[in-house]
């Protein structure tokens, strides 16, 4: 008897789409959109500083692809309170008006930024680490991680039957100063995940990052050995570090004062939330003169040599209540962000002229630690969550590639190193690049979002455009190009990349520039002249110069 024909239909699961508009190919400006069955959410909304443009303006993600697709996210979900994850929200969110979900500290920082711009803050909702929420076709759970600011969370995103872990920023700190160490069981319990969208910042670094407790001990030892007044500079957003410095000051019999608006804001908001309970009572800067020098410690912003920040004002003798002098010490407890090396050198030179003693992590590496995972941490974490696929984000191309290589070593599928503007599909066959949307850089200019001059964003992009990004490293005598040119052009005429790269290298040999902005200004006309010689029609050119860390700076 013939058997009835049974039709076996494979259950096809609806795909998921990802669209990063920031954070890929760069460190900063994180924004990733997720789509499932036509419903969208946005994760993080950060900014970055364009050190290669005059005045170092803020850059925010370009939302044009969303306008082209006619979509707005139903919610903005924030992983943690760092500027590269929240700094653009007060600029971009008004276009969406959607609910924002953030942990208490990130929510407090966002509220303060929104209030500064006169925006209503009732869309900002607090979610505690460990809690879950449903938005559109997504179910999300906030999973606590360690980083350099409390309440950092990974997001477990469930879309249909697929589960994605969007890590945000993290490290495996066995002894963080604020909050608990990572609970491995939480992560083992979610294994295996279909996809991890992961932090690539320190993927080229072998070994394990330093714990914040180790830095706290090193700082205390360093401060205990010093006489005279002590100024310690770090990022305001590194709250673990701010606490470590405060505690060390108290143990060494010093009173603490804060310098810098962002430092004051961070400490005020964190204290309001019950963090920093054992932070010493603060002394106003104008009262420091009444204290003996050995009882003074100042925590100041400006570790990157920013000319308007507290430390530069001190170095230039422009602070009304505090003058540095011989016998005082300045400790740098922050990494040098690539591209700032020369500004930092200039600051250190000015500080030396005042006769102060300088301490930094070049000679005492334990004075700083990275907030991002090194290779051993990535391996341990991926052993816990057993991801099938990896999408390496939060990094420059070389960080993403190192992350990709580590994944393939662990038999995790990682076919892509995404760029901003890539529409990526995750389906039963894995990850694919579906299409690429060209983005135009947007900066904040006179309180408004504007395209970078000369980037072609002013017109409707009908013209030929050429986007060129160059990575450089500062060296003793100037700037050296690192890696390949990153070219993206709609230009019909062929362009000889090797010849262009050679020309750029020749120019770099001749250019004397103290900052990326000066370098860009000097390089641009030469490059335009070369293009005019080699192409029939000169396109609109957007040039972006990234600085990369040199060997000496590795391990930050
Ligand atoms: Zn972070
Ligand atoms: Zn980040």
TrEMBL record:
Signal peptide: none
CDD domains, A to Z: RNaseJ_MBL-fold (cd07714)
Name this protein carries in UniProt: RNase J domain protein
Coiled-coil stretches: none
Chain ranges of the Metallo-beta-lactamase domain: 28-208
GO molecular function, one term: metal ion binding
Organism: Halomonas elongata (strain ATCC 33173 / DSM 2581 / NBRC 15536 / NCIMB 2198 / 1H9)
PANTHER family referenced in this protein's UniProt entry, alphabetically: RIBONUCLEASE J (PTHR43694)
Keywords: Exonuclease, Hydrolase, Metal-binding, Nuclease, RNA-binding, Zinc
């Amino acid at each position: 008897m013939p058997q009835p024909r049974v039709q076996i239909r494979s259950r096809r699961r609806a795909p998921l789409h990802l669209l990063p508009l920031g954070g890929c190919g760069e460190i900063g400006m994180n924004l990733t959109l997720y789509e499932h069955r036509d419903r969208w959410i946005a994760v993080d909304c950060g900014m970055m500083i364009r050190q290669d443009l005059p005045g170092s303006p803020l850059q925010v993600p370009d939302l044009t692809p969303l306008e082209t697709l006619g979509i707005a996210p139903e919610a903005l979900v924030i992983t943690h309170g760092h500027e590269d994850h929240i700094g653009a929200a007060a600029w971009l969110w008004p276009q969406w008006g959607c609910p924002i979900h953030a942990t208490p500290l990130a929510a407090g920082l966002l509220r303060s930024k929104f209030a500064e711009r006169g925006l209503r803050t009732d869309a900002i909702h607090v979610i505690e680490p460990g809690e879950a929420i449903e938005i559109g076709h997504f179910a999300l759970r906030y999973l606590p991680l360690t980083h350099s600011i409390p309440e950092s969370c990974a997001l477990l995103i469930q879309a249909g039957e697929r589960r994605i872990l969007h890590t945000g920023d993290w490290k495996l700190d066995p002894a963080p100063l604020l909050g608990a160490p990572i609970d491995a069981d939480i992560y083992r319990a979610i294994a295996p995940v279909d996809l991890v969208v992961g932090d690539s910042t320190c993927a080229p670094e072998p070994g394990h990052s330093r714990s914040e407790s180790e830095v706290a001990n090193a700082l205390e030892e360093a401060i205990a050995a010093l006489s005279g007044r002590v100024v310690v500079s770090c990022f305001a957003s590194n709250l673990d570090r701010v606490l470590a410095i405060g505690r060390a000051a108290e143990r060494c019999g010093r009173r603490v004062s804060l310098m810098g608006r962002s430092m004051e804001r961070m400490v005020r908001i964190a204290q309001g939330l019950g963090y920093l309970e054992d932070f010493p009572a603060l002394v106003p800067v104008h009262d420091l003169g009444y204290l003996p020098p050995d009882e003074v410690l100042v925590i100041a912003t400006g570790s990157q040599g920013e000319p308007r920040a507290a430390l530069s004002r001190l170095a230039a003798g422009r602070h009304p209540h505090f003058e540095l002098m011989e016998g005082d010490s300045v400790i740098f407890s922050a990494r040098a962000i690539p591209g700032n090396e020369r500004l930092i050198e200039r600051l250190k030179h000015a500080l030396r002229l005042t006769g102060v003693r300088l301490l930094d992590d070049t000679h005492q590496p334990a004075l700083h630690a990275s907030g991002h995972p090194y290779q051993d941490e990535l391996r341990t974490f991926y052993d816990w969550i057993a991801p099938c696929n990896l999408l390496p984000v939060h990094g420059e191309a070389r960080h993403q590639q190192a992350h990709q290589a580590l994944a393939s070593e662990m038999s995790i599928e990682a076919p892509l190193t995404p760029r901003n503007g890539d529409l990526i599909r995750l389906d039963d066959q894995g990850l694919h690049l579906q299409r690429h949307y060209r983005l135009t850089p947007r900066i904040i200019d006179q309180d408004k979002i504007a395209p970078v001059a000369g980037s072609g964003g002013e017109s409707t992009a009908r013209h030929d455009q050429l986007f060129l990004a160059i990575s450089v490293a500062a060296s003793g005598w100037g700037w050296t190009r690192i890696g390949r040119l990153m070219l993206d052009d709609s230009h019909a005429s062929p362009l000889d990349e090797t010849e262009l790269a050679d020309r750029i290298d020749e120019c770099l040999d001749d250019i004397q520039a103290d900052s990326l902005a000066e370098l860009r200004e000097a390089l641009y006309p030469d490059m335009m002249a070369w293009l005019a010689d080699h192409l029939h029609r000169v396109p609109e050119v957007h040039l972006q110069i990234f600085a990369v860390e040199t060997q000496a700076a590795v391990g930050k």
